Amino acid sequence: MKPKILVYMRVDDRVIKELEKDFHITSFQNHEYIGNRTFDQALKEADGIIGLALKVNKELLDLAPNLKIVSNVSVGYDNLDIEELTKRKIMATNTPGVLDDTTADAIFGIMLSTARRIPELDQFVKSGKWDISLQPNQYGVDVHHKTLGIIGMGKIGRAIAQRAHLGFGMNILYHNRSRNKEAENIYNATYCELDELLKQSDFVCLMVPSTKDTNKMIGAAEFKKMKKSAIFINGSRGKNVDEDALYHALSNGDIHAAGIDVFTEEPTNPNNPLLQLKNIVTLPHIGSSTTECEYGMSKLAAENLHAGLSGKKPPSLLNEDASGKEK
Ligand code: DGY
Fold this sequence. Notes:
Layout: E1 4-7, H1 13-22, E2 24-27, H2 37-45, E3 48-51, H3 58-62, E4 69-72, H4 82-87, E5 91-93, H5 100-115, H6 118-126, E6 147-151, H7 155-168, E7 171-175, H8 181-187, E8 190-191, H9 194-200, E9 203-206, H10 220-225, E10 231-234, H11 243-252, E11 257-260, E12 280-282, H12 291-309
Parallel strand pairs: 1-2, 1-3, 3-4, 4-5, 6-7, 6-9, 7-8, 9-10, 10-11, 11-12
Helix pairs in contact: 5-7, 7-8
(2R)-2,3-dihydroxypropanoic acid is lined by residues 74-76, 99, 287-288.
């Protein structure tokens, strides 16, 4: 009998077709969740789960007695309770590597959009208000040759540094748990303490994973340390930033502007006060969302799932200690 898998949101259709050859699939492409009978039934029987951002915690795992692997279609895995999964010998995997360039492109797009006020000026043209040449109060600020502070120099941080150094001649500062010699040697990035980075950067770009240590790591005190001309970019997870503090920093002029791809709650509430501000560019978590990249992520997630359910070590296993469960 084919192993049973639960396919959750955002697995590429071509990949689902391939998975169908080897697995019995129950698919949930919308927001069905615990409490939905079909979902609970699929969980009860599932040997594996593949998908994006499903909250896998004790409560869900209690409903999934056969589960051997959870294959995330994302590099971030803050939706997974790794400790609980490991305790139950259930493997967890993610999709590192395949999204670095795509996400770095998105971050640069957000940086340029914010600095050059592209969404606002697009609306200016489309709403028919462009009747005389651009006025000084509509000018943007330069990105090239400015100082970029990257908080979190992992693979995506490195790809951002590459673009900043080679394409935009930027001076790069970074803060990370460990030193990144490649970023230092090839992209001329300088390691510094967080406070120093906040004080010196024209652009502060947050790229750390979401953990209990990074929760609200950028709040009122951090915004106060930034230059008044600073532009803050969040390409990591919404929870890493205190959204109220961001709102106040933007409305009080503590910082110049912000570009954010992520929110504390996603999708964000349409009444989120941040959405009322003029000096913020907001995006619906587009980091890795290109057709090519989403396909690559789905393929890698399927590879992880296949390996895990056929007794092999998945290429991007997150919890080595979990790979002993009887298959
Ligand atoms: C990731 O892969 O973590 C992206 O942010 C999409 O969730």
